[in-house]
Amino acid sequence: MNWITNYVRPRINSLFSRREVPENLWTKCPECGTMLFHRELAENLQVCTNCGHHLAISPRDRFAALFDNGIFKEVTVPEPIADPLQFRDQKKYPERMRAAQKSTGEKEAMLVAEGEMGRTPIVAAAQDFSFMGGSMGMYVGNAIIAAAERAVQTRRPLVLFSAAGGARMQEGILSLMQMPRTTVAVEMLKEAGLPYVVVLTHPTTGGVTASYAMLGDVQIAEPNALICFAGPRVIEQTIREKLPEGFQRAEYLLEHGMLDRVTPRGDLREELIVILRMMMNQPPAVMGDLPAPATPPSAATGEPASPEPQARG
Description:
seven-stranded mixed beta sheet, 9 strands
């Protein structure tokens, strides 16, 4: 009986038991419903291969695809006062911060880096919508100022990728103060004669739209990105009227003169290289000779697949 219990039954169970399948191997496109394999989606820069819908992409993954060989150096951002208002709703503000840091692996909602894109030295800043909705707090304000100061110091253009739900309510008026602070940072670039290019991604709303996100020398957006101050649902409830189809989406804003271009993510690097070299009075780049971006990171591990390490500041 021991032989049957200890050997035969476990052997039978092992033959008929279901094999464990790792989670997060597939992602469902929210637009068309297609199930997308994680490696295929990562290789396509988080863009649906069936309908072209642009899913969210982290700043680190974006920079890996933007900079030559995926190599960049982080720019140091001054740390603001933690929890200045001792804010608490259902949770304390520090608890929400720790949860966001754990889920994203990032310190805050904006990453600033410098490197070369098509052999063109640039400074870049990108917001992370998965970090508390990419909300604009004191750290984001410090990050934009640090990016602008670094761009002026090194005589490089600044490229900013916006993605935010607006100001961070846990920091109250201190969050709203980042609107004039970041506007002054943009003026530093303009006084130095350096290009400031904004790429608006889905979604860019609230106080971010009302400040640095709409002050670029060139305004580019990703397809179907929601770009607004107040959202369409709020406007409909206020005016009690049905809004036009596609209202406040990138293509609608392009038609009405608020944007210069709507560019798919896969074409964005080459377009930025052309625009920045033109604005910096540099000769056109020979695209075939440009260093390639890094191989997109694996969606399963989140680690760069390229053998070239990312430099960290």
